[in-house]
Amino acid sequence: MSEKDEKIKSLVDMGFSEDGANMAITRCGVDVDLWELVDSISAPQMTEDSHSRNISDHQVTDQCFDSFGGGKKARLMEESKKKRNRYGGRAQGNQPSLDGSHDEPMPLPNPMIGFNLPGYLQPSVTRILPKQDTGPPFFYYENVAQAPKGVWATISRFLYDIQPEFVDSKHLCATARKRGYIHNLPIENRSPLLPMPPKTIFEAFPHYKKWWPSWDLRTQLNCLRTNIASAKLTERIGRALASSDSPPARSVQKYVMNECRKGNLVWIGKNKVAPLEPEEMEYLLGFPKDHTRGLGITERYKSLGNTFQVDTVAYHLSVLKVMFPNGVNVLSLFTGIGGGEVALHRLGIHMKAVVSVEIGKANKRIFRGWWDQTQTGTLIEIDDVKSLTDDTIVSFVSRFGGFDLVIGGSPCNNLAGCNRYNRDGLEGEQSALFYHYFRILNAVKSAMARI
Ligand code: SAH
Question: Which keywords, in A-to-Z order, does the entry hold (predicted)?
Fold first, then answer.
């Protein structure tokens, strides 16, 4: 793709019209930052209009967008403009780029326990959100904590400057999962799902003790990924151990441990390691047994590798229970296999209606299957976030009387540390879908403000 095509595509992926994107590039040139282009889609006319007609920014923004075929992006633009101003942006000479690459990196806390976690004593965090940012609708956005520099600053800037809550699930269960969550939920009076999940490998899977060598000092598993170690690798490890002394030489131990850590391998026999089974992952992640059963094994690993750690998310969502004793209406973006819904269900929060947007056929099948077996509310399924228009959102808002929760974690393909090939940040093809979360959330907020 030429640079121009790529920029047009990024802008279209963010919800702008192709015409608007083309005009912006004609005006500014193709070499400028994507952020400049976003700005320029409204800026020139805005200055002109506001000087000549002396009308408010709000009206102007709407008019600008009307000239690009509809006023729907206006709210999006206005929000981002406000955000930039609040965040510093150009006014302070700090030119932000859309992928945030000029921003300061967001420091990750150590230990990564978010605002609070059960069993951790720490100074209690208080936060007071401005009235316009509090729910309903409550929103909850998730992505990988270790994203390229500036990504979280950008996500935060778009989501009302709310600071992310970074949590590593290893503080709550036996497996690591470092994630950032931006949400406007209260953070007081949270309660964990009971029973609390096991926190160590042996508590979770006592039978692995039998073959676990004394020099494998792991007590917890690393982050569960979307793919697993090959049979070739586990065979190679077996051969290396078989031809070693007992205990093996340091160098062999080091090699084996390195692979075990990378692949979350467990000891299933003498000199024999293997990846976790999908049902073991389901258990570690807080899903019911066999949740993903019926899919091909590769698909099961993929879906599980991408999903929420249910206990972690449930801890954050638990505050909804007293607020909505009669249940919640949920807009679920990038539903996957339904980590958010499983969390609500396990909390005993009734879902009156869920509008679920998920493109993956296999994920949809799993989610629909779980829903039919466990829920009595209304489920509406939509394939693609890009096809969820503002008008459709307005109609859902009037049908259900608004959404109580907008929940989702957009794809991390271009952010995750292990992806060396197209780790191109928030503007990457998949990760740019974040902007649809932002667009859709704003559309819900505006529609709800009107009713
Ligand atoms: N939170 C989910 C997983 C999110 S992973 C869970 O608990 O399981 C991101 C999801 O976004 C994947 O399931 C992927 O299939 C979906 N996705 C990717 N592109 C999409 C699009 N354009 N519209 C809707 N969903 C999409």
Answer: DNA-binding, Methyltransferase, Nucleus, Repeat, S-adenosyl-L-methionine, Transferase
Q: For residue 54, how far is its CA from the centre of ligand 1 (angstroms)?
A: 44
* Segment among 28-42, 81-95, 189-203 with least mean pLDDT: 81-95
Instruction: Note whether 385 and 436 are within 8 A (CB).
Output: yes
First to last CA, the chain: 44
Compute the CA torsion angle 163, 169, 171, 175 (nearest 10 deg).
Answer: -160
64 included as an active-site residue: no
Ligand 1: centre distance to CA 262 (Å): 25
pLDDT category of residue 64 using cuts at 50, 70 and 90: very low
> Cα Rg for the chain, rounded, in angstroms?
24
Please state whether the predicted TM-score (pTM) of the whole model is above 0.85: no
Residue identifier of the C-alpha nearest atom 4 of ligand 1: 336
- 348 CA → ligand 1 middle, Å: 24
Mean pLDDT in the chain?
84
Burial class (CB in 10 A: 0-12, 13-18, 19+), 194: exposed
At 259 the pLDDT is 95
| Res. 83: pLDDT tops 70 | no
Q: What is the pLDDT of residues 391-444, one digit of tens each?
A: 999 999 999 999 999 999 998 877 765 555 556 678 777 888 999 999 999 999
Is residue 302 over pLDDT 90? yes
Catalytic residue, chosen from 64, 173, 223, 412, is 412
DSSP string, 80-91: HHHHHHHH-GGG
Distant-in-sequence, close-in-space partners of 26: CB < 8 Å, separation ≥ 6 = none
Q: Quick check: 83 and 160 in contact, CB under 8 A?
A: yes
Domain coordinates of the chain in residue numbers? 97-194+303-449, 201-280
Taking CA atoms only, the protein residue closest to ligand 1 atom 10 is 334
Q: How many CB atoms lie within 10 A of CB 157?
A: 23
pLDDT beyond 90 at 30? no
Q: pLDDT exceeding 90 applies to what percent of the chain?
A: 66
Provide the CATH topology of domain 97-194+303-449. Rossmann fold (3.40.50)
Q: What is the mean pLDDT of residues 190-196?
A: 97
Average pLDDT over residues 63-74: 33
Query: Rounded CA gap, 127 and 106, in Å?
Result: 18
Could you tell me if 328 and 344 are in contact, meaning their C-beta atoms sit under 8 angstroms apart? yes
- Which tokens sit at 10? 């990024």
